[in-house]
Amino acid sequence: MASGLKLSPDGLKVLWPQPADDPNDPQNWTDFRKTVHLIIITMSAVVPDFDSGIGIASIFGLAQTYDTTSSVINDLTSNWSIFLLGWGGIFWIMLMRRYGRLPVLFWSQLFSLAFLVGGTLAPNLATFAGMRCLTGFFGTCPQVTGLYVVTDIFPFHLQARKLNIWTSGFVISPFLSPFVFGFLVARASWRWAYAIGSIYSAIVLLLIVFFMEETMYDRHLASKPLQISTGLRYRFETLMGVTGYKMAKYRPRWPEVLLASLDVVWRPQFFFVVLFEALVFGFSIGLNTTNVVFMGSPPPVGFGFSQYAVAGAYATPIVAVLIGEFIGRYVNEFIMDLHIRKNGGFFEAESRLWTCYLAMPLYICGFLTLGAGIQNLSKAALIMGWGIAIVAITLNTVAVYAYCNDCFPRRAGEVSALLNLARALGGFAVAYFQVPWATKSGGLVVFGVEAALVIALFIIAVPMTQLKGSYFRVSVALFICVAALNIESVH
């Protein structure tokens, strides 16, 4: 049996999943074809938070246009659009399991673009807020599709590296738009920022239409001849969803699809780690939505930066994400290879979490430095603290995504959607309390308490999961099997 297994080109690793003897299996695609899909899905993952972040760059212009305050703009548009970014993923992943990745991605991005254009032209605040929230709900689809696509086309030993690239896309995206458009809105209307965001979304949509292919491969049907169209007609029907509709009868039924997320979220090896990640990433969302207020407000509340200075400061988290991606790429692979060597050739998912031990000291250092910088109005401390915190968040996020994906290889979509929901729920409300709290008690208290909460959850969740994760997996699987046998015996 071992001699019949397919290996990586260097002959050192067993490919998993084992590619089928079918050129249509995405695991058999060329490296160039796979790279194209990774680039497109990463560019797509940038769209949701990039669009949401345009509001951060435009916050003062929006307040002036709609005759209100920056806090009202944050509360009414930014926070609720972030909230819907999380819930949208749960909805889209259900459709994806039935009808495929490509049609759901295409239609969601088409509607997201339409609503973004609507927000660009919105005549009043109510219309603008509604369009931003709908943009977030529809636009979040690539943030849950990427984990599916990576596991569809890449073997296990390459998935952590590729996930590092994909996660960097949506981690860096909320900082890109304040950086790019901060300079623009200093000289032009905020509507131009949203118009350019619409152009980027249109470019991504065109890349999906012309270059993206369906990566969902029904391995249990690989040996069965199916009646499907070919050529240009097949391409059109797959993009529109006709092929997915025809194939749905071979795929999981609606009851299973609707309950799949619930089947994952209650498991202890998932729940505690994701709760920990919710605060880690959630507070970074809070940084993104409130730092612009701290930097733009006059002393003693903030630094009194000009619009240009605020935009320039957002280069800090962008550089930090790139540093985190570079470090994480090699750290995760080193930990995986070391664990396999020490474990007799076997891999356990809990080894992924060792990266968190590197991330957390950086997290504490970054948040305390940032809090001291805001409290004492130190520009150097603001920049250094912000950058170190984002490096830590990038490292931790990749580790958690890789761990959860390894624990539930058949639930990649649900894992991605639940993680997306967790980080949205962890961060959408931070803007409500962070600025008033920092104004009253000082930035060091606020960011110190947030870091303490994260470290407390880290101490509870990560060591316990590493010690008991395999036990949880075996015990839960045994419990489900026994329950299924009891139900069968009753019938």
Automatic annotation (TrEMBL):
Pfam family, one: MFS_1
Domain Major facilitator superfamily (MFS) profile: 37-466
Domain of life: Eukaryota
One GO MF term attached to the UniProt entry: transmembrane transporter activity
Membrane topology term: Multi-pass membrane protein
Gene Ontology, cellular component aspect: plasma membrane
Record field: transmembrane: 38-60, 80-97, 104-123, 129-151, 163-186, 192-212, 270-288, 308-332, 353-374, 380-403, 415-435, 441-463, 470-487
SUPFAM superfamilies tied to this protein: MFS general substrate transporter (SSF103473)
Keyword Ribosomal protein: no
Transmembrane helix listed as a keyword: yes
Subcellular location per the Swiss-Prot or TrEMBL entry: Membrane
Primary location recorded for the protein, binned into one broad class: membrane
PANTHER family documented for this protein: MAJOR FACILITATOR SUPERFAMILY (PTHR23502), MAJOR FACILITATOR SUPERFAMILY (MFS) PROFILE DOMAIN-CONTAINING PROTEIN (PTHR23502:SF22)
Protein name: Major facilitator superfamily domain-containing protein
Organism: Suillus fuscotomentosus
